[in-house]
Amino acid sequence: MNIQSVNFQQPYKTSFKSTYPIVHWVAETNGSYAPIANLKLVKKLQGKIIRMLNKPLAESKKQMNTAEQKFRAYIGACDVSYRNNPRVRSFYNRTESSVDRFSPSSYMISGDDVELFENSLAKNIGKAKGNAREYLAHPYSPEAVEAIKLYNNEGLKFVKNPSKQVKDKSGTAYALHTKFEIIRSRTGSIKDYRFVDARFLPVKKGI
Question: What is the DSSP annotation of the chain?
Answer without folding.
Answer: --GGGS--SPPTT-B--SEEEEEEEEE-TTS--EE---HHHHHHHHHHHHHHHH--TTT-SSPP-HHHHHHHHHHHHH-HHHHHS--EEEEE--S-TT--TTS--EEEEETHHHHHHIIIIIHHHHHHHHHHHHHHSSS--HHHHHHHHHHHHHHHHHHT-TTTS-B-TT--BEEEEEEEEEEE-TTS-EEEEEEEEEEEEE--TT-
